[in-house]
């Protein structure tokens, strides 16, 4: 008699997405929403928010913030489009190197870029602010637009050309409309970054040119004007939400466009009429190198010639002992803080991405709506003043057990808020690309949810996870806004130390600042190179 078949254990019931969402949303509520609302609430309680909103100065600052962000976005889009073409449609030696180097400006610390443009344009002003912000964000445009451009079928444009359309008309009537969602999404993200730029405006704008972000800093730190800071935060938050809504709409359109097109290789050698676009792209890349080279030269330049005195001085506390710790101690503080922030952000960000994927695959408008709201909420920390969050920490976190205000984890918490959205944007498209049938097959064979993740999702997303961790690490390493407000005097990070050195007299202090910038830049280049090698085998169609 044949033995009866043993029953297959039922698949473990999947954990509800709503339950999984408790950790990322809880973290966001405690370490972002609560501090921000506390500052805004205190501003209203003290009175004067309505008065501050009615002041002409408030709207002058808002107007300048929007104007410089719009100008920076326009420059970044115009500069990024030729580079996007180069990455998507051109097969030439060195394209992989271009893709790697393009990421470096985006993740350079703001204080480094501020010093680089200060060395090139000592007078500062609006032009330097616009150029520096555009310098940061050319990569966002190039890689976001290029990711979609690489998946567009060239035959439609070729058909238009065969019917007599000029190269420009064929591009304008066929390719550009298809790219519009990616261009819009990239422009919305760039505008968001430029509108909330802190370090660049603080270093290049001086007292004359101020944005909402720098004014919030001044009113909070120097004047303790909470009503005024709260009013400016509300104006800034409204602009951020508008940019996020526009970006989300464009992102959905882009994802829809991607699903309709095959992921074929469209790169080839440029035709005769395309070489000028390639030349424009190479010119943009050369211009991106100018501030970097200028900073390196400045780090070894003194009044008497070239010298490595600034690098040697990093072992001390600067001229006249202006620092509380040595430059190397500050560098170690940066490494430790960035490590803690990255670990925390990976836990929260990856779990948030898993939840967003689960909500998207859950039928019903309620789940879809929850996913969209959660996605937008995770992006909000990018657009709210880091000073508002930092000052909110100081008036709220003492109510938690252990009084986190004195904890060494205070700065990592603030830095994690900044890099969580970037991690989500990098991991989410890869998770969405995993074939759901593989998960269902594993679950049918009795695998629980955790084992499905370990056996299916993790191997397919491992490289993306490592790349996201590295990307978040270099961003945390150079974070300046919140860190400048929260770092203890005896435990500064390297960007905070650089800013302190620049504000002190003495040639040696200036040399130390530029030498420290060069070291931060070197670390950034190394990490970015590793990241891009890890991601080279994956599609670049997803979020930047």
UniProtKB/TrEMBL annotation:
Pfam families referenced in this protein's UniProt entry, alphabetically: BPD_transp_1 (PF00528)
Keyword Transport in record: yes
Sequence intervals crossing the membrane: 62-88, 100-121, 127-152, 173-206, 226-250, 275-297, 341-359, 380-400, 412-431, 464-487, 512-531
GO biological process, one term: transmembrane transport
Localization annotation: Cell inner membrane; Cell membrane
Keyword Transmembrane helix in record: yes
Keywords tagged on the record: Cell inner membrane, Cell membrane, Membrane, Transmembrane, Transmembrane helix, Transport
ABC transmembrane type-1 domain: residues covered: 62-247, 331-532
Annotated GO CC locations: plasma membrane
InterPro entries: MetI-like, MetI-like_sf
Membrane topology: Multi-pass membrane protein
Record family assignment: Belongs to the binding-protein-dependent transport system permease family.
Protein name per its UniProtKB record: Thiamine transport system permease protein
